[in-house]
Write a structure and sequence with these properties.
mainly beta; eight-stranded antiparallel barrel; disordered N terminus; 5 helices; 2 domains; eight-stranded antiparallel β-sheet
Length: 455
């Protein structure tokens, strides 16, 4: 596959308007990526901030005219947390409920976690984006007050978490955390199970205003891409910590909640999916019965037999007339040598996976502009035009790179990608949302989920 020259065509694309790249793409006042108008004004350096003027019908709003707490977005974070988010765009406040989480309330511990904590605080609209519509739909989280009075929430005032709100979806980043653990000193040298401190500035998040609660309607054959982190390394004396673990599979979710893999065993499901007892718009697959080890992407955990308390949570979002299944893996860690029955139970692999129908995709189905965040903890705008995807920083409009799409699809719905460095990956899509997993052959694979902003 030929490599791309990022700056032939993409520099002009990024410089004309963020309306082509992020939530503002629906503004309708920017030219299409391949238009003669882009080439003309880019060649002379005369493109206005919002691109050449366009005629035509008034653009549809990018996000609701206003939001209040009656709209609840349900989804998951890259930290393995099951969350609900609400926003009041008049009072400029928000509420973030953490319903399940492997993230400790405090650095230096593994329990208790942020599960059950509700954060409240203030939000502010951005002012740095090129259009008023873009700024209206981008909400920066400025403060986070935990309901328990002490649970950690990392917010950098100079670079706060940002939620990009659309019609039916909210994505971006929520407050992060610092993960560390001093280990257990047994007097035999170095403490066992020690985890060096690592601060996550944000946790990428995706959530939906409406979810499907009838699993029979979710059933189908899916491609799955996923990315998890394993803080413990899965070993009392790990060779490394915060190890990434990825998966790329084809699986069938059956109407009864069970799973059948195209090859090997399922990665998406342990015990059959069942509606969560809390009736909170999601399904759960756990190991409470102790009959089956919950499937994981990584090969090691510090448990004996089928005793892990990690669990999977599936949110089937409804977006643009399609289902967008999002799989959250909530890891678990418990270390207490005075607990004779269960002194060490560490299965802390946590993260997200994205499911999309295993059906052939065309470039026409993907063309447009998207916004997303991912395992690199940055926000990225993706401009898809036929076989080319341009990557732009939504806050600066600086070009960040590009990759090429290969629509040959040996497995239907799995599109091959190659960037300028030769790094390969796979992209899957559904409901005007896509997931991209790249660099799985190296030490630092990247995973990003993005949602549609405009054609």
């Amino acid at each position: 596959m030929a490599r791309l020259n990022v700056f032939n065509g993409l520099a002009a694309l990024a410089g004309t308007s963020l309306a082509l790249t992020l939530a503002g793409c629906g503004g309708g006042d920017a030219p299409s990526p391949g238009s003669a108008e882009v080439a003309s004004c880019a060649s002379t350096g005369s493109c206005p901030a919002s691109g050449p003027a366009q005629s035509g019908p008034a653009p549809a709003p990018l996000c609701p005219a206003s939001l209040d707490y009656a709209t609840v977005y349900t989804g998951g974070s890259g930290g393995g947390e099951f969350v609900k988010m609400q926003f009041d765009t008049t009072a400029l406040t928000y509420r973030l409920q953490i319903l399940a989480s492997p993230v400790p309330k405090a650095p230096g511990s593994v329990q208790p976690t942020r599960a059950g904590v509700t954060y409240t605080g203030t939000i502010a609209r951005l002012t740095s984006l090129p259009s008023a519509e873009q700024n209206r739909c981008a909400l920066a989280i400025r403060s986070a007050v935990p309901s328990d009075g002490g649970a950690q929430a990392v917010i950098d005032p100079a670079d706060p978490p940002i939620i990009f709100v659309g019609n039916g979806v909210a994505g971006g980043g929520i407050p992060g955390a610092t993960i560390s653990y001093p280990g257990v000193d047994l007097g035999i040298g170095a403490p066992i199970g020690a985890i060096p401190a690592k601060t996550f500035p944000i946790y990428p998040v995706l959530a939906f205003a409406e979810t499907e609660t009838d699993f029979a309607k979710v059933a189908g054959t899916y491609n799955m891409l996923g990315y998890h982190l394993v803080p413990s390394g899965g070993n009392l004396f790990p060779a490394g910590n915060f190890i990434p673990a990825t998966a790329q599979t084809v699986e069938t979710l059956n109407a009864d909640g069970t799973c059948t893999a195209a090859s090997g065993s399922c990665r998406s499901t342990g015990n059959p999916w069942r509606p969560r007892a809390q009736n909170d718009g999601a399904f759960e697959s756990n190991n409470d019965a102790g009959t089956r080890q919950y499937p994981f992407f990584y090969t090691q955990s510090l448990v004996s037999g089928p005793t892990t308390k990690a669990k999977g949570i599936l949110v089937a979002g409804k977006l643009n007339g399609a289902l967008v299944p999002l799989l959250i893996r909530t890891g678990y860690a418990h270390i207490d040598l005075t607990d004779l029955l269960d002194p060490i139970n560490v299965d802390d692999e946590s993260g997200l996976a994205f499911l999309a129908p295993a059906a052939t995709l065309t470039s026409a189905q993907l063309n447009g502009s998207y916004v997303g965040s991912g395992s690199d903890f940055v926000y990225t705008s993706s401009i898809v035009q036929d076989k080319l995807v341009g990557l732009v920083d939504p806050l600066t409009t600086n070009v960040k790179g590009a990759f090429q799409l290969d629509f040959s699809q040996a497995r239907p719905g799995q599109i091959g990608t190659t960037d300028n460095s030769g790094t390969t990956g796979t992209l899957i899509a559904t409901g005007h949302a896509f997931a991209h997993l790249a660099g799985t052959g190296g030490a630092n694979p990247t995973f990003r989920v993005s949602v549609f902003a405009s054609p």
